[in-house]
Design the sequence.
């Protein structure tokens, strides 16, 4: 089990424990895609690209200097596959707060 952070549109983010890729797919509602934000080094964002334009937008990301939007549910995970630390959660919360 790894500790991740889940953010759904129009809801507060929450901590969650997952046990593999199937659970991640279930959380995001389909095939997963990994994206990143330039300001969150070491953290990946797991999204469902098929949600683009179909689900509510969640928050913007900047990747390699280009602005884009996350649609639907987003799961924040550590790039190396380990659980998110308390420091990681604080960084993610600051990131999400700045996006509001």
Sequence:
């Amino acid at each position: 089990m790894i500790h991740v952070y889940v953010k759904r549109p129009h809801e507060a983010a929450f901590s969650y424990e997952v046990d593999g890729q199937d659970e991640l797919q279930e959380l995001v509602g389909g095939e997963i895609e990994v994206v990143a934000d330039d300001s969150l080094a070491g953290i990946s964002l797991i999204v469902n690209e098929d949600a683009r334009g179909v689900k509510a937008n969640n928050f913007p990301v900047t990747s390699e200097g280009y602005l884009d939007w996350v649609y639907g549910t987003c799961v924040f995970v550590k790039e190396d596959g380990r659980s998110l630390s308390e420091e990681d959660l604080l960084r993610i919360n600051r990131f999400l707060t700045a996006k509001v």
Notes: Helices lie at 21-28, 86-99.
